[in-house]
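[Automated response] Your request has been received and processed.

Submitted sequence:
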Amino acid sequence: MEITVKEINGNTTRLTVDLSATVGDLKQKISQHFNVQTSQQKLSVNNGQRHNLDDDSRNLSFYGVSSGSTIALLITNPVPIKQVFVKNEKGQTSTYDVDVDETVDQLREKIYNKQRVPLDQWSLVCDGKELKSGMKLKDYGIKDKSTMHMTLRLRGG
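Generated structure:
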């Protein structure tokens, strides 16, 4: 059967799939044609009612897809989110959501926005190492649920 795949920008592409094809089979075909991973694809069909094609093991016919149907394709860019903990000098712990490619500076900005301690008055330490500006969190091996310590800089003359 021939179906149309429509991207969010309005571009359409015709694909031929078997009558017995599953959602997973269609995602594989889309993956080859659009050069995008199956995990990044969100598919839906509107045949009087909108259905998300979210079960890769189901046949397309289960969702009412037939020859001539138009499948909406949304390509997502899933970024693995991690939660990290930052303990301040008072022993209070705050939680921050970070992505894998986030820099130390981006995390410091999030901490500043929440705690309002001027950036030049503290540093971050994880596993005994001070986290340097310009580096990425992954450069320090920071994983989901890692704890960092916000240490105040000594002031004086």
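Summary generated for your ticket: The CA atoms of residues 85 and 99 lie 14 Å apart. The two ends are 79 Å apart (CA to CA).
If you did not submit this request, please reply to this message.
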